[in-house]
Amino acid sequence: MSIDTRPSTSEPVPASEESRQWTARVRRSAESAFPPNRLLPDRQPAYMASWIYVFGVLTVVGLGWVIITGCVLAVMGPSWWHVSSVGLFVNSLHLWSVEAFFFFMVVHLWGKFFMAAWRGNRRLTWATGVISFLVSVGAAFTGYLSQQNFDSQWISTQAKDGINATGAGAVWNVLNFGQMLMWHIVLLPIVVALIAGLHVLLVRRRGIVPPFDLTEDGDEVQEAAPGPDPA
Amino acid sequence: MSRGSRGRRRFNPDRDVKEWTGAYVPYDILKEAFVAFLAVAALIALLAIVFSSPDEHAVTLKTWSAADPVDFAQTAITELDGTSGTATYGPPYNATPDASQHIGFFEPNQWLGVHQPVDTAQDFVIGPLRTLPNQQATQLAITTYESAPAAQQATWTTAYEKSVANAIDFHGRLHVPAGRYGPVGVIIGSLTAMSQTGGLDGTLLSDGQFYNTNYTKPLLFLADGNYLAARAGTQHLQGDQWGMMNETGNFPGQAWLWLYTMWYQVPPMNTSANGDLEVWGLMMLLSLGLIFLPFIPGLRSIPRWTRVYKVIWRHHYRELAAS
């Protein structure tokens, strides 16, 4: 039996029906929110002439190296780096990529704070950045618990008191190596990647916050033209 | 918040912004990302080659009991008589009353109850010793102990605690002064010997299964003794040494936990019986405050008040002034 895969031309889908499709709606929304020149811009506002802006892309790149080096460790298994000099080097790359990632992220966060980067309907961009930082702290913490060495023993036995005090210890046992390893290499990286991805998309959608508007004597403008409506 | 006649809000410089209508300059975002990717690769490779990464071997019950059998025995007797840190911990390990941390009526640990049950006498002492074959004296001592009334058991364990306080480590062997501690001396002596052979590590971990990745019981036993903490102290990892953010050696550790660790150094948290819950509560409030900072009057004005932005956008303001 042959199957006719040619598109039907005798009964076209009505335009109104097509416009109500979930797929069509999502495509239209995505095209509206992220036109190519906004998603991959080839120019930027002139006020972005500062090194502080580099820390945003450095943070993303740092996260990329954390994931890459973590994947290499995952290929060989959690005990590999204890018995192999190559494994120890990859673990060292993983450790220092984490340190670099957090350094870049904290500088980026402080920079955005002092720019008041939430202005102009960018509050969700700020919130996703902060949440990404907090989840990253959890991801790094579970990494320390998954090392299978003295650090893991000491950090887990000390941290259990804080976790248990909140009641979370009932389901999140920091002394359970297997559970912490799963959170470290599966669950938390997925959450970090999703939130960081949303954060980057919001940056592309809303743009970079402009500088404070100054009067001629250098003070901020307190009242000016009406601002945008709340989101 | 006031609204204009047409429903528009009054301009607030901490919330609103006049979108940019000025000049744009060429910017190659992919080239910047690629260069950053290579630069970070070079940076972390350099750091990895120069500094490597710490890997201090884990402490085992075997190494602990061999290196410090007195501390091991002093800890083991508290596991047997139910006075150790784990035995009196409360949820999620056991139902010790009034052991959970609380702030007023807020006592989440107690509400959620026991989810990782640990009976220190059975799980850490009697159970492992019951697995030993061909040790009739040990099995007889356990039977004698378990069949004795609770008051008699307490008399024996109290007597042993007094004697073991003066025990000595003679070339790795435990010597406890004589006392009226009945079968307890044999029990703790056998457990120490079992641990020194490595048998206790495997028994505590097995939990009846071939594969196991849950180290809750051996870690709790280790944490009840002084050996682990003393070793942590030499590695500047104790709580009063900002230990939560440190790691072994001279590595930066979790420096991003500095604020969390700081609260453990200051009153009232550093002396409070509910210090962990207080610190966690404080950190959760601060985290929520950071997430919702754009909505908090006063706090969201700090960037404008401090004027650090004038340094960040100094080129922009200089060009504006020049034009």
What structural class should be given to the helix and strand makeup of chain A? mainly alpha
Tally the helices of chain A: 9
Runs of chain B with pLDDT <50, length 5+?
1-5
Structural category of chain B is mainly alpha
Please tally the β strands of chain B and state the result: 3
Give an overview in words.
The complex is a heterodimer of chains A (231) and B (323). Chain A is mostly helical. Among the domains of chain A are: 50-115; 118-206, no CATH class. Helices cover 64% and strands 1% of the residues of chain A. Chain A contains nine helices and one strand. The longest helix of chain A has 30 residues, at 85-114. Mean pLDDT of chain A is 89; it is low at 223-231. Chain B is mostly helical. Chain B has a two-stranded antiparallel ribbon with strand order 2-3. In chain B, helix 3 (69-81) runs antiparallel to helix 7 and helix 3 (69-81) crosses helix 8 (184-196). Chain B starts with 23 loop residues before the first strand and ends with a helix. The chains are: A mainly alpha (231), B mainly alpha (323). Strand 1 of chain A pairs antiparallel with strand 1 (24-26) of chain B.
Describe the secondary structure blueprint for this structure.
The complex is a heterodimer of chains A (231) and B (323).
Chain A: H1 15-19, H2 22-33, H3 36-39, E1 43-45, H4 54-76, H5 80-83, H6 85-114, H7 123-145, H8 150-165, H9 177-206
Chain B: E1 24-26, H1 29-51, H2 61-67, H3 69-81, H4 108-112, H5 120-130, H6 136-147, H7 150-164, E2 168-170, E3 173-175, H8 184-196, H9 199-206, H10 216-224, H11 227-234, H12 258-263, H13 275-291, H14 302-306, H15 309-312, H16 314-322
Antiparallel strand pairs in B: 2-3
Helix pairs in contact in B: 2-3, 2-8, 3-5, 3-7, 3-8, 5-8, 6-8
Q: What structural keywords apply?
A:
heterodimer, A: 231 residues, mainly alpha, globular, disordered C terminus, B: 323 residues, 2 domains, two-stranded antiparallel sheet, 3 strands, disordered N terminus
